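Step 1: inspect the first sequence and its tokens.
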Amino acid sequence: MTRRTKDDWKALIQQQEDSQLSVADFCQQHNLGQTYFYKRKSDLKKLSMAPQKEAFIKVSKPTIKPSQNLTIKMQYQQSRISVPVNVSPLWLAELIKALA
């Protein structure tokens, strides 16, 4: 039994289409199982239709100017609290717990 790569199967499928032979006749000439031929053809078609994924995604860190005064603003009904973004998460958690 011969092992074939994807490229081998692509070439065989193209060869069958170019030969004007039926799949049954082509498979018989090349000693291929007709069912297996159709399966490989279907698999390759699915692969060609699948969206191609990039190996890497470029991610860039957003730049924040130090002069900006960034704050976290929280509001519940009529109460509003504003704290700087660099506040300790533990302190903020304690504050929220105390207000609950």
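Step 2: inspect the second sequence and its tokens, then contrast the two.
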Amino acid sequence: MPKKPTPADATLILTLYDLRREAEIRKARNWWLADFWPESADDFIKVAQAVGTQENNWLRQVPGYWELAASLVLHGTVSEPLFLEPAFSGEMFFIFAKVHPFLKDLRAKMQSPHLLANVEKVITKSKAGRERLQFVEQRLAARRKQMKEGAPRA
């Protein structure tokens, strides 16, 4: 049973939210949300191997943030229900949904079996999390289709 949120949980959530407002991570988040649309493990690996580029930094920064945040849930430091509120963790689902279809291949090719493991555990441990992931993946599939058809970005 997840722990009931406390004032300390709220403080930690607000601190985590505030960290996302730092200028460089804002750029990284924007890149992940608007510009980075990997369709395969190879698309991800291409950026991962471009060491020294801004995109490589951003590729690592945003999942690293969410891995750290998810670890706080897994270790009982922050309330899972509070963490999974869409207003806070919606971006985590979006980022994970972008790589989830090829995550097994990505882990194998990068020889990194724990890549996004904390995020995956937090998302998939509950029925609500799994359903939300499925919903986000469907929305991303529709967006990818629009992009391929040349529709302007929304």
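Step 3: confirm your contrast with the notes below.
DSSP finds nine helices and no strands in the chain. The CA atoms of residues 74 and 121 lie 8 Å apart.
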